[in-house]
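Team,

Forwarding the record for the chain on the shared tracking sheet. I've put the sequence and predicted structure together so nobody has to dig through attachments.
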Amino acid sequence: MAATRLIALHKNKGKSVAACLKSRTDYAQNPDKTEQGQLVSSYKCSPLTVDEEFMLSKRQYELVTGRRQKNDVIAYQIRQSFKPGEITAEEANKVGYELAMRFTKGKHAFVVATHTDRQHIHNHVIFNSMALDGTRKFRDFFFSALAVQRLSDLICLEHQLSVIEKKPYRERQKRIVYPPKESNRDRLCGIIDTILAEKPGDYEAFLQKLEQQGYEVKRGKHTAVKGKGQKRFIRFRTLGTGYGEDEIKAVLEGKAKHQPHQKQPLKEQSFQLLVDIQGKMAEGKSVGYKKWATKFNLKEMSKTLLFLQEQKIGSAEELRERAAAATERYHTMGNSIKAAEARLTEIAVMKTHIINYAKTRSAYDSYRKSGYSKKFLDAHREEITLHKAAKAAFDEAGLQKLPKVKELDAEFAELLTKKKAAYPDYRKARDEMQELVRAQKNVERFFAEEKDTTEKTQTR
């Protein structure tokens, strides 16, 4: 499976053309790479004096044509690599010689060196940029590298060697799934898992192993670490269940068993809404967009039908009923959570007023006994204002007797627990509702487009 590359060799800055030619040809004929020069062949030049003969032809070209260019191409190189184990070094040299002869049509001197220092045998073919008669130079035409590749493939097929089969663009496999990116937190969890598996003696030994991994450790009330390239410290207690200081210490003491971090993969959206092709075309979209949108709609409608089969929905009416029921269930659960949040806010406000009322009661009694003195008001304005605000809140709520703070705390804790427990079901109901509604809209749009197409056909 030969791979080729055509390279134009230029003069290096600070070196002469002769020195550059010598270094390039010496590298190609390196005895350690060519079995002491046995795998070197040439045409119209000697491998020992190839650089001098190339220079002689360049001087002849200048004398014949009178042309001399700066930053000129001094020679060309063809690299030809073969599949490991498919060809011998001697045969590879013959194939390289034939490639150079047929590509230059025998009008340019060249040297072929076959290297065996790698697993794959490869040729270095260096041919002179000047023709043998000194009247012209090699013209590096457009797609010349492609011509070398095709000629090399043809010669390889003639020698019963494999070639690289290039697939058409439409048949090439496109990259759709990309490797997931690892966050700093995921990386830290993985390192903690590894260190805990080694069973360090105590918490300090655990932190020292983290420092050996390149992390900066900040000891204190809450242990935090920062890796190389990170801007902020990460506290253990923010990494999730099983990674807090107390949990890690319990694992080190043998009181608990550590569960390694399991990253949950993101759930991909099963299908998307169909594109309103007629509306987009009315906005001025092109014919190319219409082709893309038609193909996109077919794919998404196929996914929608698979979803309906999985949900065992057999008709549009059943889909409509299921979507309506899911929407109602979602809104019911949402209203319940909102009511709980509103009550939590009321409890927090009422608790604040009760505490303020109790703290400022003596100051307000003194203010009343002073005959509502303006001087006393100026001295205790903040306390009196808080007391009046609390009293107004109690009157607005119609409270005859103030509730106890402990009772409010208990109710607050109970509501908060119920709210947190209801959130997973609420998210599940939301996802179910969104999928059913999206499927319903896709089915309705699909049948609407089919109806329009049928009516236009009948009209014609």
